[in-house]
């Protein structure tokens, strides 16, 4: 459908020299809304609830954590678990005390102790934790992409797929997120040459099997790894988490997905806010953003080490400079790093210098090898 | 042809001295002849023609007449006790008339300086010096001294084409009494006995004035002549009286001649866009398909071509109207006061009257503009009885894409065409048949693999039957089909074809009966619908797309209607009507039942029922009442109430109609839309009737409109009831208009203040918009000002301009951003809380006609126009993008600068 949208825009451009120019609307709403991002699972470990406030449109969009709230989780067996704030706006359960149980219902309660809205109380509905089947398989395919515009240049990426099924028919709505980790290496013999980078998913991956005859998901595309980054250069690992959901939560994510599509055509869908499952008790009209998810969770990891065509060398453009021994090096170890020193006994000494990103992999990643990492 | 004569013809050039009566001596024995034989004999002997209608003379007995010497004397005696009269012209031809007398007189008309001799410049230029004056007697002169009122009725036909002329104003200034001819050219008027001047006027035709001596009830048929020179005509002289005479409020009529005086957009005359200059009719913005009438959404307009509904009336996604202006005779827009013969949409009816082919000779025209080229040919198949007209229009703008230095667009293609054809056949005087067809097609190819196409087809058969001069019927059979299709190859086995189709077949039987002070209209209207909501099929052998088709919908809509327009007193007339409409949804269909205690969604389904035949019905009466109170000879006051029901919805969750919107019939859950409109209007003619002023106010409520739950995707949506929200609407407004429609300088100024609000009435949280409060509709534009100006320099040059200003439409703005799951998301304000900047546009055009010599083979016309002369960047849409963690606003202007165009047309 998107292509239709673009088509129409292009035609209009053509026809009449239509134009797009910056526009600052006059909006006088400065209201800051509560944003809740909470997830509890049946897995051991801590569960995190993050609280923040929305940022009015005309201000710079940085995260705006909400400190000092009282956050608790109740279950339908009458237990109450308090969460503690470990950093600004991040509240966690006590891993020794709390672990989600499939079939039990949970409710989130929040009390804001902030001076701006003192003693306001918020809560979610009671949500049942539904079971989730394990991920059957994670696998990848090399994908040759043609440029859509002119069907020329070829690049090769990697598409990761997932398959799962649930014979018990208990889980009909699935959500996935992932954490990707990859190893990279600098093209110089420096001390910090091999590092790892991790990155969390930032898109919505959901699927329901309600319209399928069988509760089975085949070949669900989880992530496409483009070869424009260096993720595939050495070795790549993807950890996918699979969550169970109820229909309400599925609706929430699917609507969020549909409106986060870019607007700006002749045929914009009338936008609207997507409201989750948290309500203000003291002011029922107040809108609360975000969602409190109660999900069972299973995980699976895949490693990818393969040949892909057209992989980039991000360090190709690292500028080096040769400095002789008598010259001082301004900004040494701050902006300039020594790549190599030619340790002759006789002067002049010669060093190759470059910027930190090129000489020290910790500028992008971490030198600490992740515990799950499998060496070849 | 059974008739020896044309019905009753009035226009004659009279000399003072008729052929001496004594020259028509009877030199033969007539005692044993029938009337017919007598006439034949007289014609043979004197080489003259005698015109009469057989049915008048069958009863006459010439054998009873004794001792007459001349033909006139014979007729005098023969016609003594029957209301037949005769008239002898210069050449001695004898015309027999029934119910009225034709005679010559030197007396000036009682209308003094307003008198214009009824000469016919077109046919006989040499006789312009005629000084005579025609008086027509209607009824028996013996009733001269009686008082009271009588009814005069008859048909108005176009002298050249022999077509009936609808919409002719029949008017008497002194009495301020008048009427308008109907679709058959029939009029019926009640007047007091006495001598009156009756004017017959219609746009594009020469005004005709007839002096009447009205003694009793009678018939008078009138032929009118086309204007020879289009630019010199008194274009709107007919309209001024219409405004006072129509029963309904909120009716706008545009004739093709006045419509062609308006500036064009990109060289194309566009009938729908010209209605946007009228008060109460608006659109979302440039390039939007629909229009909004008095707070109605754009699917609430019934656009009728050849009596059949058009489901998508635009080309090029709304930039051009899909109706070729070449075929238009006149267009009537009912904003309110919708007659009972129309139904099925609640806000308005746009009825496009189309032309018939020329009955005498082959003619045509052709033209070229920056966007299209068009051709029309017309002519007789059989002279005077059977004609055809064929028009076609197509874009030739594909080459433009080739010029653009952009690989994305190089392989793009855009094209559209439309074809109209009509055959008219007069079987005899009582039966006429029209067969019409319409075809439109649009196709766009984007890059090289995505193709979007849509098209309409319409077939229509119309049979007009005249039972007698006061009772006629129209039987209409039609089929209308609309379909769109999107297909794409995609990169990896994703080839698909998405399509949607609606097909409707209609049968309509309509009867008109004129009886004294009553004008009765009744009939039956049946429509059968078949809708394919959507199908999504793999395209190509390698496609892995799973085929999916949403169940077809079928339904039957039926209505019976009755309406009577009656004149209570000279000052008050009433039009009361009832339309009873019904709708039946027909299976096979699967209906899901939901838990009534919660919102409809998959998890609340409680049962599934399969229906194989009729499964849900809706029915209800629609009352339509109008009162017309003549407050003075030059002003009138009207009141109107209207109920309308609509059983079809256009599902659109975008601000304007988008190319992938689909039609949906009412079903188990989706209820019919019901509209109620209350309107009042005051109309006044000023400055010797050269300026007309009107003010109308209205209040309207609409039930059962649809809106959508948040974030719904409508494309290929199954179980659509889960996504719909029931909303109701209310609208009110005042429309003011002043216009001068005569002379070299013509202008109009219209101002509308109108509001439209919507309110959700759902029970569950996802069915509630803006907390269930009233909020402005997408097309709520409170202030709307339009002005037009025409200056006719000469017959060959004319200049026109129009100006539009309106409040910006409502929009939902983002008001905050937040972080969730590593995403930056946007939070929006209440629906339609803000407005985009105001809209303003000025267009101009200059028309130059070539040499007007009638003998020239082709008459060329040039039209130069500039759309959006001020180059104002009117905002169509405002949207936002997240850039570097900050949400940036952008505005999209469809036309960012002035757009000049030049088009060339010629008639041949």
Q: Largest interface, counted with CB-CB under 8 A?
A: A-B, 82 and 89 residues
**How many extended strands of chain A?**
23
Count of individual beta strands of chain B: 56
CATH homologous superfamily designation of the largest domain in chain B: TonB-dependent receptor, beta-barrel domain
Could you give a short account of the major beta sheet of chain A? 10 strands, mixed
The total count of helices of chain B amounts to 8
Shape of chain B: elongated
Helical content of chain A (DSSP H or I, runs of 4+): under 10%
Please indicate the count of domains of chain A: 3
The helix fraction of chain B, in percent, is: under 10%
CATH topology of the largest domain in chain B: Maltoporin, Chain A
Largest sheet of chain B: 22 strands, antiparallel, barrel
CATH architecture of the largest domain in chain B: Beta Barrel
| Residues in β-strands, percent of chain A | 35-45%
Overall form of chain A: globular
CATH class group of the largest domain in chain B:
Mainly Beta
Specify Rg of chain A, calculated over alpha carbons.
Answer: 26 Å
Poorly predicted sequence stretches spanning 5 or more consecutive residues of chain B:
1-21, 104-132, 228-243
Structural description of this entry:
The complex is a heterodimer of chains A (376) and B (908). By secondary structure, chain A is mainly beta. Chain A has helices at residues 2-16, 247-259, 356-359, and strands spanning 19-22, 34-40, 48-53, 55-56, 70-75, 80-87, 90-92, 105-112, 120-124, 127-128, 135-146, 154-165, 173-185, 194-200, 205-208, 216-225, 235-245, 278-280, 289-294, 297-304, 321-324, 336-342, 350-355. In chain A, strands 2, 3, 5, 6, 7, 8, 9, 10, 18 and 19 form a ten-stranded mixed sheet that branches. The two termini of chain A are 44 Å apart. Chain B folds into three domains: 21-237, Carboxypeptidase-like, regulatory domain (Immunoglobulin-like, Sandwich); 251-349, Ferric Hydroxamate Uptake Protein, Chain A, domain 1 (Beta Complex); 350-907, Maltoporin, Chain A (Beta Barrel), CATH 2.40.170. In chain B, 6% of the residues lie in helices and 52% in strands. The radius of gyration of chain B is 31 Å and the shape is elongated. The model of chain B is unreliable at 1-21, 104-132 and 228-243 (pLDDT under 50). Classes of the chains: A mainly beta (376), B mainly beta (908). At the A-B interface, helix 1, strand 1, strand 4, strand 11 and helix 2 of A face helix 8, strand 49, strand 50, strand 54 and strand 55 of B.
């Amino acid at each position: 459908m998107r292509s239709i949208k673009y088509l129409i825009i292009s035609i209009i451009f053509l026809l009449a020299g239509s134009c797009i120019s910056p526009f600052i609307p006059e909006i006088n709403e400065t209201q800051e809304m509560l944003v809740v991002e909470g997830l509890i699972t049946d897995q051991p470990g801590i569960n995190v609830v993050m609280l923040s406030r929305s940022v009015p449109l005309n201000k710079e969009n940085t995260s705006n954590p909400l400190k000092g709230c009282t956050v608790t989780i109740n279950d339908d067996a009458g237990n109450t678990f308090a969460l503690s704030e470990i950093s600004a706006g991040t509240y966690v359960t006590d891993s020794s005390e709390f672990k989600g149980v499939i079939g039990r219902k949970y409710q989130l309660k929040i009390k804001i102790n902030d001076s701006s809205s003192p003693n306001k109380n918020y809560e979610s509905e009671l949500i049942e934790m539904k079971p989730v089947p394990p991920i059957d398989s994670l696998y990848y395919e090399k994908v040759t992409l043609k440029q859509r515009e002119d069907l020329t240049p070829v690049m090769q990426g990697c598409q990761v797929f997932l398959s799962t099924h649930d014979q018990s028919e208990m889980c009909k709505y699935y959500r996935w997120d992932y954490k990707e980790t990859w190893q990279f290496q600098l093209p110089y013999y420096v001390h910090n040459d091999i590092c790892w980078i991790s990155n969390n998913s930032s898109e919505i991956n959901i699927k329901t099997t309600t319209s399928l005859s069988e509760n089975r998901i085949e070949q669900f595309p989880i992530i496409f790894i483009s070869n424009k980054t260096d993720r595939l250069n050495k070795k790549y690992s993807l950890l996918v988490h699979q969550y169970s959901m109820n229909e309400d939560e599925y609706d929430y994510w699917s609507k969020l997905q549909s409106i986060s599509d870019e607007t700006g055509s002749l045929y914009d869908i009338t936008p609207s806010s997507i409201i989750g499952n948290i309500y203000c008790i003291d002011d029922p009209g107040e809108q609360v953003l975000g969602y409190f998810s109660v999900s069972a969770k299973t995980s699976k990891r895949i490693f990818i080490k393969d040949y892909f065509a057209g992989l980039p060398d991000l360090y190709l453009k690292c500028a080096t400079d040769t400095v002789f021994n008598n010259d001082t090096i301004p900004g040494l170890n701050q902006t300039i790093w020594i790549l190599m020193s030619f340790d002759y006994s006789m002067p002049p000494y010669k060093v190759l210098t470059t910027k930190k990103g090129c000489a020290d992999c910790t500028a992008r990643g971490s030198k600490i090898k992740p515990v799950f990492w499998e060496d070849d | 042809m059974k008739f020896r004569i044309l019905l009753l013809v009035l226009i004659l050039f009279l000399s003072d001295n008729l052929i001496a009566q004594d020259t028509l001596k009877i030199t033969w024995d007539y005692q044993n002849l029938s009337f017919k034989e007598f006439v034949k004999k007289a014609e043979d002997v004197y080489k003259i023609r005698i015109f009469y209608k057989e049915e008048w003379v069958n009863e006459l007995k010439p054998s009873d007449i004794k001792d007459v010497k001349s033909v006139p004397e014979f007729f005098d005696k023969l016609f003594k006790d029957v209301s037949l009269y005769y008239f002898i012209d210069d050449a001695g031809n004898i015309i027999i008339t029934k119910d009225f007398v034709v005679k010559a007189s030197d007396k000036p008309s009682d209308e003094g300086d307003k008198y214009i001799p009824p000469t016919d410049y077109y046919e006989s230029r040499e006789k312009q010096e005629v000084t005579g004056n025609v008086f027509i007697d209607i009824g028996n002169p013996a009733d001269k001294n009686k008082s009271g009122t009588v009814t005069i009725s008859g048909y108005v036909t176009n002298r050249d084409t022999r077509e009936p002329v609808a919409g002719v104003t029949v008017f008497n200034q002194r009495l301020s009494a008048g009427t308008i001819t109907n679709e058959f050219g029939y009029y019926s008027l009640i007047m007091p006995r006495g001598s009156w001047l009756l004017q017959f006027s219609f746009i594009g035709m020469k005004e005709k004035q007839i002096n009447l001596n009205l003694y009793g009830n009678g018939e008078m048929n009138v032929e009118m002549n086309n204007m020879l020179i289009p630019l010199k005509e008194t274009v709107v002289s007919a309209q001024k009286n219409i405004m006072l005479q129509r029963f309904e409020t909120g009716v706008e009529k545009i004739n093709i001649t006045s419509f062609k005086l308006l500036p064009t957009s990109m060289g194309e005359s566009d009938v729908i866009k010209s209605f946007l200059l009228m008060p109460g009719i608006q659109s979302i913005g440039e390039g939007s398909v629909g229009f909004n009438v008095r707070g109605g959404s754009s699917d609430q307009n019934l656009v009728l071509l050849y009596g059949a509904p058009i489901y998508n009336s635009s080309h090029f996604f709304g930039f051009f109207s899909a109706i070729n202006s070449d075929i238009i005779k006149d267009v009537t827009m009912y904003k309110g006061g919708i007659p009972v013969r129309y139904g099925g949409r609640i806000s308005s009816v746009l009825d496009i009257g189309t032309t018939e082919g020329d009955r005498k000779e082959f003619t045509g025209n052709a033209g070229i503009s920056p966007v299209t080229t068009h051709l029309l040919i017309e002519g007789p198949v059989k002279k005077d009885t059977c004609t055809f007209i064929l028009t076609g229009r197509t874009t030739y703008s594909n080459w433009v894409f080739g010029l653009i230095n952009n690989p994305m667009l190089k392989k793009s293609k855009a094209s559209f065409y439309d074809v109209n054809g009509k055959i008219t056949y007069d079987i005899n005087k009582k039966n006429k048949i029209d067969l019409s067809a319409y075809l439109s097609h649009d196709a766009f190819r984007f890059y090289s693999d995505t193709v979007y196409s849509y098209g309409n087809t319409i077939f229509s058969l119309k049979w007009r039957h005249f039972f007698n001069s006061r009772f006629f019927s129209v039987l209409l059979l039609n089929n209308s089909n609309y379909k769109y299709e999107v297909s794409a190859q995609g990169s990896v086995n994703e080839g698909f074809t998405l399509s949607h189709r609606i097909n409707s077949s209609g049968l309509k039987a309509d009867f008109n009966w004129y009886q004294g002070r009553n004008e009765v209209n009744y009939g039956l209207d049946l429509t059968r619908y078949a809708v394919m909501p959507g199908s999504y099929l793999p395209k190509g052998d390698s496609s892995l797309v799973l085929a999916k088709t949403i169940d077809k919908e079928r339904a039957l809509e039926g209505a019976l209607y009755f309406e009577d327009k009656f004149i209570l007193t000279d000052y008050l007339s009433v039009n009361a009507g009832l339309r009873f409409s019904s709708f039946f949804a027909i299976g096979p269909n699967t209906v899901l039942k939901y838990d009534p205690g919660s919102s409809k969604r998959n998890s609340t389904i409680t049962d599934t029922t399969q229906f194989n035949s009729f499964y849900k019905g809706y029915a209800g009466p629609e009352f339509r009442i109008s009162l017309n109170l003549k407050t003075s000879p030059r002003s009138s006051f009207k009141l109107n109430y209207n109920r309308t029901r609509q059983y079809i919805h256009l599902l659109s969750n975008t601000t304007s109609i988008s190319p992938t919107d689909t039609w949906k019939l009412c079903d188990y859950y989706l209820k019919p839309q019901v509209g109620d409109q209350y309107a009042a209007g005051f109309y006044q003619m000023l400055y010797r009737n050269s300026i007309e002023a009107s003010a109308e106010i209205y209040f309207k409520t609409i039930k059962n409109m649809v809106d959508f739950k948040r974030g719904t995707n409508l494309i290929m949506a199954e179980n659509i009831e889960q996504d719909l929200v029931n909303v109701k609407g209310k609208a009110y407004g005042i429309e003011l208009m002043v216009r001068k429609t005569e002379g070299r300088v013509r202008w109009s100024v219209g101002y509308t203040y109108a509001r439209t609000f919507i309110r959700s009435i759902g029970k569950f949280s996802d069915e509630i918009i803006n907390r269930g409060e009233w909020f402005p509709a997408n097309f709520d534009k409170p202030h709307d000002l339009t002005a037009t100006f025409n200056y006719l320099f000469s017959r060959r040059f004319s200049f026109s301009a129009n100006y539009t200003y309106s409040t910006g439409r409502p929009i939902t703005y983002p008001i905050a951003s937040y972080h969730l799951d590593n995403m930056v998301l946007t939070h929006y304000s209440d629906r339609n809380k803000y407005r985009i900047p105001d809209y303003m546009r000025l267009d101009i055009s200059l028309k130059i006609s070539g040499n007007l010599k009638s003998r020239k083979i082709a008459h060329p016309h040039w039209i130069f126009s500039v759309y959006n002369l001020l180059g104002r960047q009117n905002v169509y849409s405002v949207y936002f993008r997240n850039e570097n963690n900050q949400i940036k606003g952008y505005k999209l202007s469809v036309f960012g600068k002035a757009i000049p165009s030049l088009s060339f047309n010629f008639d041949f």
